[in-house]
Amino acid sequence: MTDPTDPLRPSLQLPDGRRKVLLHSCCAPCSGEVMEAMLASGIDYDIFFYNPNIHPVKEYEIRKQENIRFAERHGIRFIDADYDVDNWFERIKGLENEPERGERCTKCFDMRFERTALYAHEHGYDTITSSLGISRWKDMNQINGCGERAAARYEDLVYWTYNWRKHGGSQRMIEISKREEFYQQEYCGCVYSLRDTNRHRRAQGRERIKIGVKFYGKDDSA
């Protein structure tokens, strides 16, 4: 079991004496370790959930509710932004067939971080960061670039590029997900990711993804 006060965790320091973080969270499995790491270091932060890319809405609601459940357990404020799916489709129009980690993902990250940065600027946060980079399926340089561009719109704001995978972070992410029995999503989130993942599964003779049935430590498909 992961202990948020584990002495082996590094003591984190915000850049340049910053004080207040708005954490863009994509889901509970990715944000669990990020949340516990900041708590262990006494960092003041709130969660901002803005992920209009997630499809279908059933998947979106499951991921959001899992994140809310974990935030409430730790007493962390959870800011629930609008789903805003129509604007997301407009933003990535013409990029439907781009590969994962390609230009479509850049546009998606830009949109999500721009909204995060705007909220942070309007509500007194001096730092933003995201749980997206902890996933080994993501390009950390791509994510950091999008975050830094969004924060650069405001003089009072920075994007914290800390590598959440370091110092055992990736392993603790898995351990926390198993401990909490988080919903175990099987694709990035958008309709095109779902499409491409199911194509890959069919090519391997595997079943299509079943939305809302797979959890760490249990299977609700029965």
TrEMBL record:
Q: Which EC class heads this enzyme's classification?
A: oxidoreductase
Q: What are the annotated disulfide bridges?
A: 188-190
Q: Does the keyword Disulfide bond apply?
A: yes
Q: Which residues bind [4Fe-4S] cluster?
A: 26-27, 105, 108
Q: What is its EC number?
A: 1.17.99.6
| Keyword field | 4Fe-4S, Disulfide bond, Iron, Iron-sulfur, Metal-binding, Oxidoreductase, Queuosine biosynthesis, Redox-active center, tRNA processing
State the reactions this protein catalyses.
Answer: epoxyqueuosine(34) in tRNA + AH2 = queuosine(34) in tRNA + A + H2O
* The UniProt record lists the keyword tRNA processing: yes
Q: What pathway annotation does it carry?
A: tRNA modification; tRNA-queuosine biosynthesis
HAMAP family documented for this protein: QueH (MF_02089)
State the family it belongs to: Belongs to the QueH family.
Record's function text? Catalyzes the conversion of epoxyqueuosine (oQ) to queuosine (Q), which is a hypermodified base found in the wobble positions of tRNA(Asp), tRNA(Asn), tRNA(His) and tRNA(Tyr).
The molecule here is called Epoxyqueuosine reductase QueH
